[in-house]
UniProtKB/TrEMBL annotation, chain A:
This is NADH-quinone oxidoreductase subunit N. GO terms for biological process: ATP synthesis coupled electron transport. GO terms for molecular function: NADH dehydrogenase (quinone) (non-electrogenic) activity; NADH dehydrogenase (ubiquinone) activity; quinone binding. It catalyses: a quinone + NADH + 5 H(+)(in) = a quinol + NAD(+) + 4 H(+)(out). InterPro entries: NADH-Q_OxRdtase_suN/2, ND/Mrp_TM. NDH-1 is composed of 14 different subunits. Subunits NuoA, H, J, K, L, M, N constitute the membrane sector of the complex. It is a multi-pass membrane protein. The gene is nuoN. Residues 125-419 form the NADH:quinone oxidoreductase/Mrp antiporter transmembrane domain. The lineage of its organism: Bacteria, Pseudomonadati, Pseudomonadota, Betaproteobacteria, Neisseriales.
UniProtKB/TrEMBL annotation, chain B:
The chain crosses the membrane at residues 6-24, 31-48, 54-78, 90-109, 142-165. NDH-1 shuttles electrons from NADH, via FMN and iron-sulfur (Fe-S) centers, to quinones in the respiratory chain. Couples the redox reaction to proton translocation (for every two electrons transferred, four hydrogen ions are translocated across the cytoplasmic membrane), and thus conserves the redox energy in a proton gradient. GO terms for cellular component: plasma membrane. It comes from Amantichitinum ursilacus. This is NADH-quinone oxidoreductase subunit J. InterPro entries: NADH_UbQ/plastoQ_OxRdtase_su6, Nuo/plastoQ_OxRdtase_6_NuoJ. Belongs to the complex I subunit 6 family. GO terms for molecular function: NADH dehydrogenase (ubiquinone) activity; oxidoreductase activity; quinone binding. It is found in: Cell membrane. It is an enzyme of class 7 (translocase). Its EC number is 7.1.1.-. It is a multi-pass membrane protein.
Length: 484, 211
């Protein structure tokens, strides 16, 4: 192997992040509890530098690195930028929350950064081995993060459930990958795609493996019928961790799916398209209908996430760059919306009080008209009300579905979103038309308030002019995924 | 032919041991069955001429990890019977589902199925070294996943420490650094005071009246 085939420069952001995590880990050892904000600032600094390196890499043409194990292309670049942004928002919104609950420890930062590193590797992996290792790095750090509040029974239970089901899903994924390896005699994404189109892969064996791969993927994305862990994990995990799972990790799962299904198993698109359609239809129904019955807002977010993932699956199912682009746009805007939603929950919480019931939002308009308006934007965007960005995300997906000739599926999606509109609007109703029960002033730092406001207003701004982001996302997809 | 017979023999033992691991009533027996499963797996690798991996599996998993695991199982005072109460209740359903799945999988793979290319293992040149080839691949082609696995182990370590370390407030714990850095002033106090007059011999000491 020569230095050129290593081409380590393509992975500069990951390499920097790994070194930065190790540095944060060591420096944190010598920082006293009172000065823990040093770790916080270092972490944000590391994320900022990583983001700069990623932007720098966007301008370069796609290139393979580490003997074809790793790829740096616009798809990975844009997705990784979104993930880094998602992680930074987790730390900014979660700081006061974590401080009040004794979670403001070095492990919160190092484990989150390691999880982010795993997601970034997932987004750039071009080989089943790298894909799997990235996924495990992300999940293992996540299991520990959920249980970080170890004296909380709910957290431990959530972590245990996630761990056992996650291990099972990893096993299924690995089994499926080994079948595809057996059929196509390669682990490399591009070689598998080549062997399949050249007819060198055993069809029965590949599709057999594909079933297991789709099951593993469905679990990671939280699509029905592999969604059982979502509500418990969202409710039990400390809110910043739930935010990390609900934002960055979903984008990572999306790119992971594209790498496996759209890039390596493109030749079996008719097969996996059917499976994804089934999961999408079930997710849309179960997510939206069950969310109505929730009184806990974090659980409601979990079910709404299931429904949103149903939309993402619809986009991927289309199986062409339009569909992928729409799903990518959906994932990134969902990251922003969901981050703002969790940020508002943490904004309302304070020491010894967790604002995780819908009733806790009663009369928010009397307490803080500004943040009631912010929550209104988030809820409207999630429901897909026009002029907010969620509407354009849904519209793009539905357009792609209709262009495939599946009008009934688009109609079904709209109907399910209408049902979903009910529980989002209920939160708005509670905020504006109910009397406030809780009269405590909102305690949150100026940084969290400012960034949260910018985040929410961005949902409106992006809704007014979605074309820039849409163009970026579509260009990233068309320049990255090679049509066979 | 011998290889095929041996393969099926080890495979059957492996599956049986795996099944016994989850059905054994005694947790120590379960751990021992798991060891047997690992060992059969190692034998399968040996048949595929991956000697280094086979030896590493036996040394590391059977030799170290499982022994540690056995210790933990024996030390922990967990009522395993209590944990396994629901197990037999669900067995009929689980077995039914498992059988249906196995039959379905068999049908799919058997039908027009899998004409998988069954090529023998390539003959290796003289002086071929299994460990050397593995090491070469790990540090060239699979360099990235190898390094990431190292990060994965680091995460495991951080997670284990973060989840288990507890500082009890009432432990009588000595800080060696403080102990070594102690100065004389911290331990000995020199008190300046006027000399006291002692009663000299012959002087009459007033006795306390007895109560």
């Amino acid at each position: 192997m020569t230095w050129t085939s290593l081409n380590a420069g393509a992975a500069t952001p990951e390499i920097f992040l790994l070194i930065a995590v190790c540095a944060v880990l060591l420096i944190d050892l010598f920082v006293s509890d009172a000065k823990r904000h040093v770790t916080y600032l270092l972490t944000l600094g590391a994320l900022a530098v990583t983001a700069c390196l990623l932007v720098n890499g966007l301008a370069q043409p796609p290139q393979l690195a580490f003997s074809g194990m790793f790829v740096q292309d616009p798809l990975a670049g844009v997705a990784k930028l979104a993930m880094v942004l998602g992680a930074a928002l987790v730390f900014i919104y979660g700081r006061a929350y974590a401080e009040a609950r004794g979670l403001f420890r070095g492990e919160l930062f190092t484990l989150s950064l390691f999880s982010l590193l795993g997601m970034m590797v997932m987004a750039s992996a071009m080989n089943f081995v790298t894909l799997y290792v990235g996924l495990e790095l992300q999940s293992l750090a996540m299991y520990a993060l959920i249980a970080l509040n170890r004296d909380n029974v709910q957290s431990s239970e959530a972590s245990m459930k996630y761990f056992v089901l996650g291990a099972l899903a990893s096993g299924l994924l690995l089994y499926g990958m080994s079948m595809v390896y057996g059929a196509s005699q390669s682990l490399d994404v591009l070689t598998i795609a080549h062997n399949i189109t050249a007819g060198g892969a055993n069809r029965v064996l590949s599709v057999f493996g594909l079933v297991f791969i789709v099951v593993g993927i469905g679990f990671k994305l939280g699509a029905v019928p592999f969604h059982m862990w979502m509500p418990d994990v969202y409710q039990g995990a400390p809110t910043p961790v739930a935010q990390l799972i609900g934002t960055s990790s979903k984008v990572a799962a999306f790119v992971f799916i594209l790498r496996i299904l759209a890039e390596s198993l493109q030749g079996f698109a008719p097969d996996w398209s059917q499976m994804l359609m089934l999961m999408a239809v079930l997710s849309l129904a179960l997510g939206n209908i069950t969310a109505i019955a929730q009184s806990n807002i974090k659980r409601m977010f979990a079910f709404s996430a299931i429904a949103h993932m149903g939309f993402v699956l619809l986009g991927i199912m289309v199986g062409n760059p339009y569909g992928y682009g729409a799903a990518f746009f959906y994932s990134i805007t969902y990251l922003l919306t969901s981050a703002a939603g969790f940020g508002l929950i943490m904004l309302m919480s304070r020491a010894g009080f967790e604002a995780d019931r819908i009733d806790d939002f009663k009369g928010l308009n009397q307490r803080s008209p500004w943040f009631a308006f912010m929550m209104l934007i988030v809820m409207f965007s999630m429901a897909g009300v026009p002029v907010f960005v969620g509407f354009f995300a849904k519209l793009a997906i539905l357009k792609a579905v209709v262009s495939m000739g599946l009008t009934w599926l688009a109609v079904y999606g709209v109907l399910m979103s209408l049902i979903g509109g009910f529980y989002y609007l209920r939160v708005v109703k509670v905020m504006y038309f109910d009397e406030a029960e809780d009269t405590h002033p909102i305690v949150a730092g100026i940084d969290a308030r400012a960034i949260l406001s910018v985040n929410c207003l961005l949902l409106l701004v992006l809704g007014l002019m979605p074309d820039r982001l849409m163009y970026l996302v579509t260009a990233a997809i068309t320049h990255s995924i090679v049509q066979m | 032919m011998t290889t095929v017979v041996l393969f099926y023999l080890f495979a059957v033992v492996l599956l049986g041991a795996g099944l016994a691991t989850i059905t054994a009533k005694n947790p120590v027996h379960a751990a021992l069955f798991l060891m047997l499963a690992f060992f059969s797996g190692a034998c399968l690798w040996m048949l595929m001429k991956a000697e280094f991996l086979a030896v590493a599996l036996v040394l590391i998993y059977v030799g170290a990890v499982m022994v540690l695991f056995l210790f933990v199982v024996m030390m922990l005072d967990v009522n395993f019977e209590e944990l396994r109460k629901g197990f037999w209740k669900h067995v009929p359903l689980a077995v039914t589902v498992a059988i249906i799945m196995a039959v379905e999988m068999g049908l799919i793979l058997h039908s027009r199925a899998a004409e998988v290319v069954v090529g023998g293992l390539p003959e290796q040149a003289a002086g071929y070294n299994n460990a050397k080839a593995l090491g070469y691949l790990i540090y060239t082609q699979y360099f990235l996943p190898f390094q990431l696995s190292a990060a994965l182990l680091l995460v495991g370590m951080i997670a284990a420490i973060a989840l288990t370390i507890r500082k009890r407030k009432n432990t009588k714990y000595i800080n060696p650094a403080v102990q070594i850095a102690t100065k004389r002033e911290d331990r000995v106090r020199i008190v300046k005071m006027a000399a006291e007059a002692r009663p000299t011999v012959g002087e009459v000491v007033e006795e306390q009246p007895k109560a």
